[in-house]
Amino acid sequence: FINKVLMEYLDKFIIIYINNILIYNNNIIEYKLYIYLIFKKLRVIGLQAIIYKYKFYIIKIKFFRFIITTDSIYVNLIKIIIIIK
């Protein structure tokens, strides 16, 4: 459902997995605009975000089997080792 609602933004500045929304951009002004657009869109369709559960302005994040930074994307080797065992 959330993928359909935010389809116009997918792979432009957001990634969605189930109910996890990752908003990304290196430009802080554009990033703030993207946050506003996403929350506005969610509000329009009647969804509410619990703001304290969100993290903003993160420069390094673990997202599934990856570690994403402002410079690159790495495989999270700890996750791979756990899967292999």
Automatic annotation (TrEMBL):
This is Reverse transcriptase domain-containing protein. SUPFAM superfamilies: DNA/RNA polymerases (SSF56672). Gene3D superfamilies: 3.30.70.270. It comes from Aspergillus sclerotiicarbonarius (strain CBS 121057 / IBT 28362). Keywords: Membrane, Transmembrane, Transmembrane helix. InterPro entries: DNA/RNA_pol_sf (IPR043502), Rev_trsase/Diguanyl_cyclase (IPR043128). The chain crosses the membrane at residues 63-84.
